[in-house]
TrEMBL record:
This is pseudouridine 5'-phosphatase. Keywords: Hydrolase, Magnesium, Metal-binding. It comes from the Eukaryota. The lineage of its organism: Eukaryota, Metazoa, Ecdysozoa, Arthropoda, Crustacea. The gene is PUDP. GO terms for molecular function: metal ion binding; pseudouridine 5'-phosphatase activity.
Length: 239
């Protein structure tokens, strides 16, 4: 496997037949909204939520992320209480979520060329509805979505492989092999999940991401705008 890189090469890294996308921080610019929410919840206890803390729980199921934050900051809350407080803020913030640069072009291109595409997120159904409420038509292009925090079939959240394995199984015509699936992620836990499922992963991380957190990705890009479909045997963009 070629080493990952921030400089796209036209040498094909693999041939993908199916594509699965993460949602938060990858297709939707929601990570800042999650951070604002956490800041408001923990701030009432005089606590500060750092980037390092966020990095450790990005991509996890909601309950797992809540437990991690409570433990790290020693909050006097249960996971259920933390999530209830967060949910009230999410209802306010999530409907404002915007698509990330390059997301719409890539997804519409793959859909146009009949490449099977799906979503695999650590989020919940209620939050997904809030975040996508302004983008219903765009998200209707995906064949299905697997939401780890709501789907009973997902026993373990990212970085476990469950969510990607289940998303692959639910295609009308599932991929012949895990390595035929190309995934897109922004978070280290998501990359580990996809790779544990045996799939290739393009990582589009936050600019602050430490280099060691990127090493498991097949390819690292600074933006979806930099992705070239032919790098993975997919139809090239029109000239």
């Amino acid at each position: 496997m070629p080493a990952n890189s921030s400089e796209p090469s036209m040498e094909p890294k693999a041939v993908a037949t199916h594509v699965i996308f993460d949602v938060d921080g990858l297709l939707l610019n929601t990570e800042t909204l999650y951070t604002k929410t956490t800041d408001r919840v923990v701030g009432q206890f005089g606590k500060k939520f750092t980037w390092e803390m966020k990095l450790s729980q990005m991509g996890m199921k909601g309950s797992e992320a809540a437990a991690r934050i409570i433990e790290q900051l020693e909050l006097p809350l249960t996971s259920e209480e933390y999530l209830r407080q967060s949910a009230r803020i999410w209802e306010e913030l999530f409907p404002s979520a915007e698509l990330m640069p390059g997301a719409e072009r890539l997804v519409r291109h793959l859909h146009k060329h009949r490449v099977p595409i799906a979503l695999a997120s650590g989020g919940s159904a209620p939050n997904f509805e809030l975040k996508t409420s302004r983008h219903d038509e765009f998200f209707s292009l995906f064949s299905h979505v697997v939401l780890a925090s709501s789907d009973p079939a997902v026993k373990n959240g990212k970085p476990a492989p469950d969510v990607y394995q289940i998303a692959a199984e639910r295609f009308a015509q599932p991929p012949a092999r895990p390595e035929d699936v190309l995934t897109f992620e922004d978070a280290p836990n998501g990359v580990l999940s996809a790779r544990a499922a045996g799939m290739h992963c393009v990582m589009v991380p936050d600019a602050r991401m430490p280099e060691e957190k990127k090493k498991e990705a097949t390819l690292v890009l600074s933006s979806l705008e930099d992705f070239r479909p032919e790098m993975f045997g997919l139809p090239a963009y029109d000239a």
